Amino acid sequence: MAMAEFSQGTAFIPLDCRIDLDATFACGQAFRWRPDGPDAWVGVAGRHRARIAAVDGGITVTPCDEAFYEGFWRHYLDLDGDYAAWEQELACDDVLAPMAACCGGLRLLNQPIWECLISFLLSSNNNVKRISGIVERLCTAYGEDMGGYFAFPTADALCAAGEAGVAGVAACGAGYRAAYVVRTAQAVAGGFDLGSLPLMGYEAAKNELMQLHGVGEKVADCVLLFSCGYREAFPVDVWVQRAMGIHFSDAGTTAKAIRSFAHGRFGKLAGLAQQIMFHFERTRKNPPGPSGTSALSN
DNA sequence: ACCCAGGGTGACG
DNA sequence: CGTCACCATGGG
Predict the structure, then answer these.
(1) SS3 for chain A, per residue?
(2) Is the pTM of this model over 0.85?
(3) Listed residue (A270, A206, A281) closest to A238, CA to CA
């Protein structure tokens, strides 16, 4: 990759491969990004807000100096990932090829683990739009006021919400998942080490995450894929399960069988394939889903 | 009023 | 080990 350039508080990062910001930020892997004009998005990650825009030959990040780029956004945006090669490999799969062509430029993020974990604790039996609303209200209620926006709440802040505060988290719209959030916050504040997850290997990290109340296989896979860099993780939700049933008749029907099939077929690219399928299934015009024609209606 | 949503838990075989 | 009711909430 060519060297990033910095001027006037903006970073310009040249890319040798197309990046699709719409797909990347609207595909349900992160919940605090909002469109801000054509080919541009504004969002908050952890305690940092930035505007990211697609420009000729790359992207710009504002505000962002060199230290900030090296220390945060480079990793967050997975800018060292070889997406050109990965997409070329997926294009060799006759089923994934048309989807990858449609969703080319989708990138998997490396989010702060804590934020990703809490966000996906809220995801069970829920939908992307509502998860986004809950996350934003959690930040407003419990996050640090950064002047114009709110940081994602710390584990200590959500613990202070505390016992009676389960009701406070529930009041943000979390419903029965409020207990998951507070118990996990207590575990993390009490020493549960999220930082070691990217170092211990996929299986060990998954087992570790599933010790937390409210974390099953699917939520664990989302955290491992979207914040720990385990690109072989293959989260199976109702959309992916439906898409696999449509496109892979021999993949089986249970989540376990589907994960196994995906690992065999896609290997280390399973996670990227999964996210492309998820986004493709949710955004195409006439999904053969249970109801209706507008997949993103809720 | 009914179904759905990036599911997990606990009870019961 | 697998299955299943239940969970709180808002939009279609």
Answers:
(1) CCCCEEECCEEEEECCCCCCHHHHHHCCCCCCEEECCCCEEEEEECCEEEEEEEECCEEEEECCCHHHHHHHHHHHCCCCCCHHHHHHHHCCCCCHHHHHHHHCCCCCCCCCHHHHHHHHHCCCCCCHHHHHHHHHHHHHHHCCECCCCECCCCHHHHHHHHHHHHHHHHHHHHHHHHHHHHHHHHHHHCCCCCCCHHHCCHHHHHHHHCCCCCCCHHHHHHHHHHCCCCCCCCCCCHHHHHHHHHHCCCCCCCHHHHHHHHHHHHHHHHHHHHHHHHHHHHHCCCCCCCCCCCHHHC
(2) yes
(3) A281
Residue whose tokens read 């389960």: A166
Q: Is the CB of A216 under 7 A from strand C?
A: no
Strand partners, A58: A14, A55
Angstrom distance (rounded) from CA A254 to CA A249: 13
Kindly report, residue by residue over A178-217, the tens digit of the pLDDT.
999 999 999 999 999 999 999 999 999 999 999 999 999 9
Q: What is the mean pLDDT of residues A9-21?
A: 96
Beta strands A5-7 and A10-14, pairing class: antiparallel
Q: What's the Å distance between residue A257 CA and nucleotide C3 C1'?
A: 16
| Contact, A173 CB vs strand C, < 7 Å | yes
pLDDT for res A86: 97
**From the CA atom positions of chain A, what is the Rg in Å?**
19
Could you tell me which residues come within 8 angstroms of residue A187 by beta carbon, excluding any fewer than 6 positions away? A212, A213
The protein residue nearest C7 (Cα–C1') is A176
Please report, rounded to whole angstroms, the spatial distance between the CA atom of protein residue A230 and the C1' atom of nucleotide B3: 34
